[in-house]
Specification:
Shape: elongated
Strand order of the largest sheet: 1-2-3-4
Largest sheet: 4 strands, parallel
Oligomer: single chain
Order of helices and strands: HEHEHEHEEEEE
Structural class: alpha/beta
Mean pLDDT: 81
Number of helices: 4
Length: about 170
Amino acid sequence: LDQYVNNVFSYMQSKGYDGFDVDWEFPWTEADKQGHVELLRRLRVKLDAMNPRGVLTLAVHNSAVNLWNVAGIMQYADQVNMMNYDLSGFWTSYSGFNTAINKPSDCPNYNSDLTSRGVAAWRNAGADMSKMGLGLSFLGYLWPNVDAYCQTGHHLLLNPKFAMGNYMAVARLT
């Protein structure tokens, strides 16, 4: 771990960077959680020695708070950005919004992940909300070959006869 942290700082100094962003997907085990916080602690020590003080940011899943040691993260991070995108996709059984803030009012059975749930989960886990940021996407997915479910088409059952990835494409917003 020391070699990794030293290599990070050598690279940062060679490029003139003033901080580091950790995107660990995901600390699945207790040992990973402990290792994650230890990495943050060691990075924080190095960043604190910079003049001016270096910045430590993290990217975390929006609602899988149980994967993280929230108290440990808050102790060392300057900012924690919740990834609130790809909340629906070929890995879900229903179509949905890529970045859904709240459940659509006309679709009571909407069960995709929601940004509002993620914010509540992090708050309830004791996160310092002044350090939290929202990562939102500005892209959408196309959902052809789906079965009608809600009147507005917000939440359509994906047709299982199409192989994963064959029915979905990225569309640019104009």
